[in-house]
Write a structure and sequence with these properties.
Helices cover 34% and strands 19% of the residues. By secondary structure, it is of the alpha/beta class.
Length: 299
């Protein structure tokens, strides 16, 4: 699915964010990246998503070297990569339904994307994705009426709707309370597992990473400190990773949160039926929108 070999990344100001990083993943793998603040987690995800070109080294993603592709092919490659941001770049006046449908703009012909701005063309699909995150009732709200945590879940819903082959999630649950954070992580991992997609997520909470991801990569000072199965990651290894922060491990919660309800992990069709039953009477008219830009964690 991707192979990053001996890659380094130096920013224009001279700061070196990544140093000789080698990392690979097969289709369907799920990897959590952990490490202290400033370790390079976001930079690594941006390199894997072909948003930043490594200063040195080689990247192959989805069977292609993105930096050897013509511009049109690079756009098509990026359309197969879904990114969930810590702070999703959602226009304040945009409605939630439009934000979710934007997940497929790279896959749709241009005319379909323009038409969907005038009136959402797949309300059922957007509602299905939002229902998995308990946000279907906010489908026609403007983004500036949502909390930070709700905006993060809208960003995750957009990735679910996109159905990307490679999902890169950068602190996607940092603004959520422990229960919602765990449920959202479960939805992401279950969706990737059901479709055979590869999922790489940087996470602040070490306990969430260990409980939801079978493979853990520790990053420190732009280098990979370890790459191990979750069962082989012990407290001593983690405290060494976070030594610059006093060895204190950032955790989601000392008390395990309950598993996500099974309804949050069902089929797209059932999501759409239940969600549309709730929002049908709230569906906007064209004039309202024309001006508006399997299972859970593995153990």
């Amino acid at each position: 699915m991707f192979r990053l070999h001996d890659a380094s990344l130096a920013h224009a100001n001279g700061f070196v964010a990544l140093r000789e990083v080698t990392l690979a993943a097969r289709a369907g793998e799920q990897i959590a990246i952990v490490g202290p603040s400033g370790a390079g987690k976001t930079s690594l995800l941006r390199v894997l998503g072909a948003a930043l070109r490594p200063t040195t080294g080689q990247l192959d993603v989805l069977d292609a070297n993105p930096w050897a592709l013509p511009a049109a092919q690079l756009r098509r490659l990026r359309a197969r990569i879904g990114v969930a941001h810590q702070a999703p770049p959602l226009p304040p006046r945009q409605r939630v339904v439009t934000a979710v449908l934007a997940g497929r703009l790279g896959q749709w012909p241009w005319w379909k994307g323009v038409a969907s701005l005038a009136y959402p063309l797949d309300i059922a699909g957007a509602a299905a994705a939002l229902a998995r995150l308990d946000l279907d009732e906010r489908i026609f709200d403007r983004c500036d009426r949502l909390s930070g945590g709700q905006l993060q879940r809208v960003g995750v819903a957009r990735v679910l709707y996109q159905q990307a082959q490679l999902i890169l999630a950068d602190e996607p649950v940092s603004a959520l309370d422990p229960t919602l954070a765990r449920q959202t992580a479960q939805v992401l991992t279950a969706d990737a597992a059901a479709r055979g997609a590869t999922l790489v997520a940087s996470l602040h909470a070490v306990d969430l990473a260990l409980s939801c991801f079978p493979r853990i990569v520790g990053l420190r000072d732009g280098r990979i400190a370890f790459d191990r199965p979750a069962a082989a990651v012990d407290q001593a290894l983690l405290r060494k990773l976070y030594a610059s922060e006093g060895g204190q491990l950032p955790e989601l919660s000392a008390v395990p949160a309950p598993l996500a309800p099974s309804s949050a992990l069902g089929s797209h069709a059932s999501f759409a039926r239940s969600a549309l039953a709730k929002v049908r009477d709230r569906a906007p008219q064209a004039s309202d929108t024309a001006s508006v830009p399997a299972s859970g964690c593995w153990r």
